[in-house]
Design brief:
It is built from nine helices and eight strands. The strands form two sheets. Strands 1, 2, 3, 6, 7 and 8 form a six-stranded parallel sheet that branches. The chain has a two-stranded parallel sheet with strand order 4-5.
Length: 229
């Protein structure tokens, strides 16, 4: 009996790892970095757009001439159309990050999940006339249902290999040091355009990364993927 219990626990741990670690590729393929020795990196922002911080993020990126990818939440796009268009007009990539970004998004059956993702596609197409092909899983959690949605919609799932945790960070210096310490060629950095600390640290991080010899490129160039259909 103990053997079966042990096997059941091991199986549960494997499934949990495969589901919660975005780079595991356990249930589906997720691109989390580029295979390169060149010091090329891409920066990405999740969960916007929001009036409180996204404009400041855009201003920093404009001043520093850094291209980025914004994985946007559908209902926030609908509520901030002008700001959303500004993100695109400034030359940044737009990706789908679900409509609801619900805490239970990964528990949705495939049909309901597909509807949620398509709702974001609709608001993006209505605003920009573009059909996004990049999708970032909310919370970095993947499931068999999500794989079916990705396959049916022809999406490319995008993850990261440097997770800033800026949504819970409280110390600017510690966050900056962490980002610099984790830098490596081909990295995709996950930040959020919904946080004060991100606005504060971003220009310092860009300069520090450049001082280390890194060049910021758009995510599609780094990964050689199509952004829109």
């Amino acid at each position: 009996m103990s053997v079966y219990i042990g096997m059941a626990i091991l199986y549960f741990l494997i499934l949990s790892y495969g589901s919660c670690y975005v780079g595991s590729n356990f249930f589906m393929k997720v691109l989390c970095s580029a295979d390169t020795s060149e010091k090329l990196i891409a920066i990405s922002f999740d969960d916007g757009p929001v009036q409180q911080y996204t404009p400041d993020i855009l201003q920093v990126l404009k001043e520093q001439e850094v291209p980025a990818a914004f994985f946007c939440i559908g209902w926030r796009i609908a509520a901030n159309q002008g700001l959303f268009r500004q993100v695109h007009e400034q030359g940044h990539i737009i990706g789908n990050h679900s409509y609801s970004h619900s805490p239970v998004f990964d528990l949705l059956p495939s049909k309901q999940m597909e509807h949620d993702v398509q709702m974001t596609d609709i608001v993006i197409k209505q605003s920009l006339g573009l059909q996004p092909k990049l999708f970032r899983p909310p919370y970095g959690i993947t499931t068999p249902a999500m794989r079916r949605v990705m396959d049916q919609g022809g999406y490319t799932a995008i993850g990261w290999n440097i997770r800033s945790l800026d949504t819970i960070a409280t110390n600017d210096k510690k966050l900056l040091n962490k980002l610099i310490r984790l830098l490596r060629p081909g990295a995709i950095i996950l930040l959020h355009d919904t946080q004060r600390i991100t606005v504060s640290v971003l220009p310092l991080f860009i300069q520090a990364a450049r001082n280390e010899g890194y060049e910021f490129v758009r995510l599609d160039k780094l990964l050689n993927v199509n952004v829109y259909a």
